[in-house]
Amino acid sequence: MSLATWLLLTAVFISAGFGEKQQQVWPVPYKHFDYRPTPDPFCQALYTFCPTGYPDGHIPLMKDDDTIEVFRLQAPVWEFKYGDLLGHFKIMHDAIGFRSSLTGENYTAEWEYI
């Protein structure tokens, strides 16, 4: 990295510290919608896998008056066996969870990444 680049980055970093501080809101407030968007027919699973759910892996149709809660779920792979050890290496099991307010049923879409 050149000296000029280093000086520029240092100046930006220092000036950012003296800028107006904004209070971070946590958790992020829910974004509510008054409508359901039309599903995109292009969004179809290439590889479906649902060992205990629907054979074709689809998410059931929801009613228009239903409220769906969406959750981000994450845990280290094999946490039940190794605790959070693999989490330190960012080897995580991720999922998106959905809960229907009308039926109380839960659904998940899961995947692994390294």
Gap from first CA to last CA: 29 Å
> Largest sheet, order of strands side by side?
1-2-3
Instruction: Please estimate the helix content.
Output: 10-25%
Mean of pLDDT: 74
Characterize the quaternary organization of these chains. Answer: single chain
- Largest sheet, strands/sense/barrel: 3 strands, antiparallel
- Work out the number of β strands: 3
What is the radius of gyration computed over CA atoms, rounded to a whole number of angstroms? 21 Å
Quickly count the domains.
1
* Contiguous helical run count: 2
Helices and strands: which structural class? alpha+beta
What is the H/E order? HEHEE
Low-confidence stretches: none
Descriptive report:
The protein has one domain. Helix content is 17%, strand content 23%. The protein contains two helices and three strands. Strands 1-2-3 form a three-stranded antiparallel beta sheet, with no helix packed on it. The two termini are 29 Å apart. The mean pLDDT is 74.
Q: Layout of SSEs?
A:
Layout: H1 3-17, E1 68-76, H2 79-82, E2 92-100, E3 106-113
Based on the model shown, name its key terms:
114 residues; alpha+beta; three-stranded antiparallel β-sheet; 2 helices; extended
